Structure formats: structure tokens, C-alpha cells
Amino acid sequence: MPAKPKGGKRQKRANQKDADFARELIMKEEGEEYAIVLKELGNRILRAYCMGDGKLRRCHIPKKIRERVKCGDVILVTRREYASTDDEADIFHKYHKDEVKQLQEFGHIPEDLDAILEAEATKIGVDVKKEIAAAAAEIAAEELEENYGKTEKVNDDDIDDL
Predict the structure, then answer these.
(1) Domain extent at residue 101
(2) Comparison of pLDDT for 46 and 13, the residue scoring more
């Protein structure tokens, strides 16, 4: 009898994504803007810099986007028509790295995203490197817990007793 495949639901989905599967590239339409995430504010809300008009907007992540959106990601936002101010938006789509490269080749977004990210983040007082490092550490901890369950710290005394 063959052994069961190891890992949970997320790991199996990740292995399926490695197959030759390409998503359709979603381009912006009227009322939408390309943006780059500057800071996560919590409660599915983040601060993003819209590249089309150069404004900072407070963006809301809807439940249908289950992908993790972190600092430095390129997203497509839709401005809220019913909002009293122009600084609120909803996230419509998150782009993967290969999709960002395609958008740069087509000329829809600028090539120097890192420079824009650092310049805009310093304006609002955010250390981008710390934000990205914190997000990466959080993701690594979640994956470790998911793959191996709750881990307990082992003391040297416990090892000697074995």
C-alpha cells in the first residue's frame, strides 16, 4: 500500500500551482489604479501608493482575496465611488512576480519599483526593510507551524536525559 502524501491542504495547493499553469493578466480599466503596498495597518486594511495619480490611499482587502498581501506587493485597486474622500480604495487583484514583469514590459508600471517604494515609505515614516523582514518571518513561522505542528523548545537537559 503506498504511503500517504505528507502535508496539509495548503501544501498540496502549492504543489498544484507549480504545474504549468498561467493566470490571465488582468489590466486596469476605468476607475482602477495600479498600486504598491507600503504598510499593513491591520484588520485587512493597508496603506498603498497609487502609481497613476501619485496618491496614498487606505485600501481594504476583501475576503475573496485570500492571498496574503504584504509590503512591496503590486496590486490593482478600485477607488470607492461612495466614499466622501478620494483616499479610500478596495483591492481588486494581487499580481505575482511574473505578472509584474509583464506589466513592466508593457509599460503600464515603472521599472524602478524599489526606488518608488522606499521614497514613498520614507514620506510616511515607514522602514520598508523592517516591514518586509517582519512579514517574511511571520510567513515562515506560519509555514513551520503548519508543517510540523506546535513546536516546543527543547533544553539541553532534556537531550541528556534521552
Answers:
(1) 25-148
(2) 46
Contact 94, 75 (CB under 8 A): yes
**In a domain? residue 15:** no
What integer pLDDT is reported at residue 5 of this predicted model? 63
Q: How far apart are CA 27 and CA 32, in angstroms?
A: 9
Q: Is the pLDDT of residue 4 over 70?
A: no
Cα separation of 14 and 135, whole Å?
A: 19
Question: CATH number of the domain that 115 lies in?
Answer: 2.40.50.140
Tens of pLDDT along 79-92? Answer: 887 877 778 899 99
d(CA 78, CA 30): 9
Instruction: Provide the pLDDT confidence category of residue 105 given band limits of 50, 70 and 90.
Output: very high
* β-bridge partners, 33: 77
How far from the centroid of its chain's Cα atoms is residue 131's Cα?
12
Contact 133, 58 (CB under 8 A): no
Kind of pairing, strands 88-94 and 56-60? parallel
